[in-house]
Amino acid sequence: MPHHTDPTPVGKPEETRLFVFLLVFLFPLLSVLTVSGYGFIVWISQLFFGPPGPPS
Questions:
Q1: What pTM was computed for the model?
Q2: pLDDT digits (tens, 9 = 90+) for 21-48
Q3: Spatial separation of the C-alpha atoms in residues 56 and 46, rounded to whole Å
């Protein structure tokens, strides 16, 4: 029984579809989630510790 360890070669159409998926869907979604998550963390920290700046 032959032992095949090489991954299946990917053709040009699949590679193009993957690139378009990454460029149009995944990267923008990850960017929005990253910025939203950071904003949420800042908002929650300001609820607990107050706004930034010198104490009044």
A1: 0.66
A2: 999 999 999 999 999 999 999 999 999 9
A3: 15
